[in-house]
Structure formats: C-alpha cells, structure tokens
Fold this protein.
Amino acid sequence: MAHVAYIKLVPASKKQTITLEELKQLFEHYRSICKKTGEQLGWNYIDSAFPYEYDETSEAILLKGKDARYQTIECRVGHENEHSFIQITLPKNATHGDKGKANEFCKFIAKQLEGELHLFNGRVMYFYKR
C-alpha cells in the first residue's frame, strides 16, 4: 500500500499556487545547498543527501534511486477548493531510505513555502505564521 504526505498551501503561505517546474526548482535549491555543505566539509555530500535522478512526466516528478537503498518517490501538484497542494507518494516498493528522504524533502519544501505539512504518519506540522 502506498503512503502519502501532503504539503498544503494555505492563505498564510508564501505562494498560493505551485507548478511542477517550481517544485523541481525547490529540489534544485535543496541540491545546491547540500553541494555547498559538501564543499565546506571536503566530501561529496550531495550523493548522500540527494541519491536520486529526475524522471519527469507531464503529471509528476519521479525521483528514481541511484543505488539499492533507494527506489522511488513520486511528487505531484494538485488543486483542491482553491488551494494548491503538493502530494509526495511512496509506492509499495519504497524502502525505509525513501521514507526518510521523503520526510526530509517534505519538511524542506514546507518550510520554504511556509505551508502545512501532513506527514505519512498522519501528524501535521505548521510552517506558516499563525
């Protein structure tokens, strides 16, 4: 059974809508931060921090794992009741590594957008000013 997390963009968020291209730019921003961290530490941290390659479709961004510890994370953008959201899905074949990285990516994206994060375990984290 697939596990799903959501990042909802609420009225207090930095943005009210988001596209797949903007979501990809957020992943690229995450990668650039990790690359700079690796340069400061003197090792190739980016391979550990973002062990995925992009496989894009018109409806989703698929993050495909580069090694056996990581399989797939699926990212979609949607709209519900005039609010946008990002859906992060872990398919049946996802590993524990995928779940850990997906949680990390969700928190980063929610913090950047100041959204409302609904985690895989059902808990909610608020990254906007209330």
Summary: The chain has a mean pLDDT of 93. Residues 41 and 94 are 30 Å apart (CA to CA).
